[in-house]
Design brief:
Length: about 200
């Protein structure tokens, strides 16, 4: 992991960071009873051994630019990436629909944000506004088979755009009022037939 700050002038500031990740996971499982119902009869008591593993590596990034116009006004913008770890799927008996994958990959996102933070009335009023766009790919979700078993699958992409407004007011000493308003427009961008998802469906 590494991060650096750089002042372009006495006022603007740039922050950049990068992180490397490496994931290795696995399991070794012995299934008996109903979990082995499609295996040879003797396996119901002796068990069926199943193994799985998954590995992945990569980088995440962050860059932020801020501009302090004065003591009461700050503008900022930035972009950052993130992920959720990959992994192996647990044992599911044969003959299930949809057919489970042996493993699933990391899902990843990029978030872009622009905003302003301000104070007014000698600090008694604080108003913050931001707009954002989140791009999400290879979404991880639980899929159920026709036999009632579940496994994790990657189902495509989605995006989430929105805005947030936050206001805090201290009209008199000892009294503080606050309000927040959020607008979201989050939809799937790719279809996934097994879940009945089509492009444009809300998340």
């Amino acid at each position: 992991f590494g991060e650096a700050n750089y002042n372009l002038t006495p006022t603007p500031q740039v922050t950049a960071g990068v992180r490397r990740y490496a994931i290795r996971s696995g399991y070794d499982q012995l299934a008996k009873g109903l979990y082995a119902f499609d295996a040879p009869v003797e396996s119901v008591t002796t068990g069926v051994r199943d193994q799985g593993k998954a590995s992945e590596s990569g980088f995440t990034y962050k860059v932020m630019l801020s501009y302090q116009a004065n003591d009461n006004l700050l503008f900022y913008g930035g972009a950052s990436s993130g992920y959720r770890p990959c992994g192996p799927n647990q044992f599911v008996p044969p003959g299930q629909t949809p057919v489970p994958t042996k493993s699933y990959t990391s899902d990843k996102l990029w978030q872009y944000e622009l905003g302003v933070k301000s104070t007014w009335w000698n600090g008694r009023l604080v108003a913050n506004l931001s707009v954002f766009d989140i791009e999400w790919t290879d979404i991880q979700t639980i899929v159920a088979t026709n036999g009632g078993y579940g496994f994790t699958a990657n189902i495509g992409g989605a995006r989430n755009r929105g805005a947030e407004l936050e206001v805090q007011l201290r009209p008199i000493e000892g009294l503080q009022l606050g309000a927040a308003l959020t607008y979201l427009d989050a939809v799937f961008q790719t279809p996934f037939a097994s879940l009945g998802v089509v492009a444009g469906d809300p998340i």
